[in-house]
Amino acid sequence: MLFITLLLAMVLLAATALVIQNARIAVSDETEATVSLAAALLGRTLPRHTDSNNLLRQFTPGEQLRHLCLRLILPRTPAPTCSDTTPPGTPAWFSALTRPEQAAETVLDIEGQPGRILIHADPADEIAEAWRDVRGLLVLILLFYAVSLAAVFRSLGRITRPVETIGAALAGVEHGEFERRLPAFDMPEFDRLAARFNLMVATLERTRDENQRLHRHSLRIQETERQRLARELHDELGQSLTAIRADVGGILAREDSLPADVAESARAISDVAGRIYDQARSMMRRLRPPGLDELGLAPALEETVAGWQRQNPDITYHLTPASDLSGLDPEIAIHVFRIVQEALTNAHRHASPETIRIRLAGEAEQVTATIEDDGDGFDPARMSTGVGISGMRERAELLGGQLQIDSRPGRGTRVHASLPRTPPKNREVFPLSD
């Protein structure tokens, strides 16, 4: 826009300069022609005049004709001068630009006469006439500039408005707003572009929905498999280990009648079975939080945090459960639990914290979980997103929630997740069991 405005202004200045230059040439030509004509007429008239000497004396220093200044130059007298007059009704800038640098004048010698005549052209009247001729043209040029500028701005505005609309829509698509659609445009080129854009985002929206559906299905399978494995560990492996320890207990009950090496082997089997059972319980807690289905989210997190505390006695844990988590959908609860679980795992694995704080907050429409640590921290702009962070973010977004991660090197990390209390009705989320 600025370039076009400057271009039109340059055209306006060039046209104005051309008009003024032509007016200046016209004024110069007219004054020179006037001097030449006056000299020719006086040269032929004065010698034939019966009383030329008396006629010469009529050109007194105080008289000045239109377009001309005539002065009588007598011997042994100071030479008279002519001064140019001010053009009537003419701007000073126009007069200065069109006035000839050297005024046209000549000195006429009259044969047989004692004096001479100074013929000096006064351009004032010519400049005034040129201004009357030019001002209309200058007004027309200025009007043409204003109309052209308005037309250009209107045309560019008609073009740039669709471009801005398309740019805003592209920015929205860049941020995942695939529901955006472009309106119909007056210009057929933009209208065809809008139609192709709408087709593209509709395809992207269908692809995104399909990917989300497949992702939710994979999470459903994953969670179902975790639940099945936890049940198998509890029902099969747990019972088998319990039976082994019971048999060992029966053997050790007759320890006095057994060889020493048999009793020692029985105690070793009992110890190994106990360690396997502890590992199995730890795996079951990771696969399926104990008490989540029966007691709710807060007790399940308390049990998990207590387990972390037993494994990491040098770290201080603070859990602040929400005062009101009643009515929280079980599907939301498992997602909140998984996000907290992953955040704790990342903190222990990468941050070397001394204190970890977990806060839950229940509101009318959503539940939030905040996990903060005072560990090493990191620069989010320089660190690639890992699988854990991606998983937490995908869990939140699949349910219509959000995940924010704030961290600075040496200042710890803050993970904040907000999810709706109930799953969106238009989204498929995996159930807790088949």
TrEMBL record:
Cofactor or coenzyme needed: [4Fe-4S] cluster
Entry EC no(s): 2.7.13.3
GO MF, any single term: kinase activity
Domain (Histidine kinase): residue spans on this chain: 338-423
Keywords, in A-Z order: 4Fe-4S, ATP-binding, Cytoplasm, Iron, Iron-sulfur, Kinase, Membrane, Metal-binding, Nucleotide-binding, Phosphoprotein, Transferase, Transmembrane, Transmembrane helix, Two-component regulatory system
Database matches in Gene3D superfamilies: 1.20.5.1930, 6.10.340.10, Histidine kinase-like ATPase, C-terminal domain
PANTHER family: NITRATE/NITRITE SENSOR PROTEIN NARX-RELATED, NITRATE_NITRITE SENSOR PROTEIN NARQ
Entry protein name: Oxygen sensor histidine kinase NreB
Organism annotation: Spectribacter acetivorans
